Input
Amino acid sequence: MRILVTGGAGYIGSVTTRELIDQGYDVVVLDNLSYGHKNTLPIKAKFVKADLLSGNIASVLEGEHIDAVVHFAGFIAVGESVKDPLKYINNNLVGGYRLLDAMKRSGVNRIIFSSSAAVYGDPKTVPIEEESELVPTSPYGETKLIFEKYLRWCDTAYGIRSVSLRYFNAAGADLENDLGEDHDPETHLIPLILKAALGQRKNIEIFGTDYGTSDGTCIRDYVHVKDLAAAHVLALKKIAGGGATTYYNLGSSKGYSVREVIDACAKITGKRINTVESPRRAGDPPRLVASSDKIVRELGFKFEHSDLENIIRTAWTWHSRHPDGYK
Output
């Protein structure tokens, strides 16, 4: 199979691109490089610099003889989406529409979608199951949920089958392929803590210390980026083999508070991490922890790398080697 990976020069996209190639797929990466890094891409992957909003995506699908799409090309910052929702509507929904329209016109009828646990909002019960109530608390989460709905309608109307993977917190580094997390600006907790350990930040802001959790800080579920990549391959095999449109949670089913993650980073790095308490951020639920029983049961998925210490250790090794990221 020949796979188009949109946003394949980004963090999860680049690791998944490597995994697809290792599993014998031909891969074409489409990325506008606004957030991605071209030097993450392996020689075996063909690169097309293009934007879903302005490029002729149908010509890429047809010219490259694409069989299926893995779609990562979305904006991901919850706080930014609250401040600038139109940016997220334009990129995540209008760009997604253009991709689906090109797929319909080109006869490409399989897609794996990079969704998010943000579709659940502030869950009433934890761990969160796939059939839990879907009430996003941010424009980012709303765009992910709306696109999932579009995918189900496109299956009904056009036979475009899909698997939506609802990530919890992606983290860690692929040391084998020397791929790590390098966003600009960086908004994710673990790389921010590690930058503080490297002396690149004075402190770590803890947004909210009055949540109803054991230490008052938010609790999140962290999953290693290598495990996420493996899940995409399993999902692709499912729909390539005739599987129906569906969705899966992807989290380790273990929750850690912000303070617990900071303490674990301090232990592994041997560095003191200074913290500053700040008000809550808009759109941040207090607790997001997955139930991933469905993907384990239906696809035989295994969490092989998602122990928190392993996540932090691989991330710390990568950031130590690349203090300035990919620059």
